[in-house]
Write a structure and sequence with these properties.
Layout: H1 2-6, E1 19-24, E2 29-36, E3 39-45, H2 51-61, H3 68-76, H4 101-114, H5 118-147, E4 151-155, H6 162-174, E5 178-180, H7 191-203
Parallel strand pairs: 1-4, 4-5
Antiparallel strand pairs: 1-2, 2-3
Helix pairs in contact: 2-3, 2-4, 2-5, 3-5, 4-5, 5-6
Length: 228
């Protein structure tokens, strides 16, 4: 996840520290306060499915191929945003944790109640995407206020979602802030971001031998800070 978080640093206009990072992928969804490389504090994360995972599973419910997230977003472009309204999970309770698994059930129930013709599928896809994006934006706005920041970085596979980018850009504009994200080819897993993160660790004097040690969980906020 550090690789994803640092991917925007590969751009010509990298984000200055500090900032709030919105990390959204198939395996993780979290909000992180970032004061420097290796200076991370997890503010909130999904308590069940990651946002990208929810996209893929919902796309499967709708008969779309894997990976379904991009296909669902493409279908959502044809949808009517006013037809269905899906819940925005955990946005009415305090805190920055998120939940996306219930949206799959809501989607299945909506399909069962309204059918599965092409336009209905598009309308459902739009309602689902709107719910996920709104949830992320609401939580991000709350994190910015909590930390007294106005700078946003979005990274991870779901950061390629144009609707999410547009909504975060709107949020940044409304608060007089800035939003940064990597180019599309650096959003998904890639060697460039890992090489950049590894270079920072090497410059920091961190070395490992050729032995392999498996970590079932390796939280991003347990990494060592990199000296400037």
């Amino acid at each position: 996840m550090e690789g994803h978080l640092l991917a925007p640093m590969l751009e010509d206009n990298p984000p200055p520290f500090p900032f709030i990072a919105v990390l959204v992928s198939g395996g993780h969804t979290m909000l992180v306060e970032v004061k420097g490389i290796g200076e991370y504090q997890i503010l909130g994360e999904s308590i069940d499915d990651a946002a990208g995972e929810a996209f893929d599973k919902t796309a499967k419910l709708m008969g779309l191929d894997y990976p379904g997230g991009p296909l669902l977003s493409k279908l959502a472009e044809k949808g009517d945003s006013s037809r269905f309204t899906f819940p925005r999970p955990m946005t009415t309770v305090p805190g920055l944790d998120m939940s996306f698994s219930g949206l799959k059930t809501f989607t299945a129930n909506t399909i069962a109640a309204h059918g599965n013709d092409e336009q209905t599928r598009a309308d459902i896809a739009r309602a689902f995407e709107d719910a996920v994006v709104d949830t992320l934006v609401i939580k991000c706005k709350r994190a910015l206020k909590q930390c007294g920041m106005k700078r946003i970085v979005i990274a991870g596979g779901v950061s390629a979602n144009r609707h999410l980018r547009a909504k975060l850009e709107e949020l940044a504009k409304n608060i007089g802030g800035e939003v940064y994200y990597p180019r599309t080819e650096f959003c998904t897993d890639n060697g460039a971001m890992i090489a950049f993160a590894g270079m920072q660790r090497l410059k920091n004097g961190e070395h490992n031998d050729l032995g392999v040690k498996a970590f079932p969980r390796w939280p991003i906020d347990t990494l060592k800070p990199v000296e400037g």
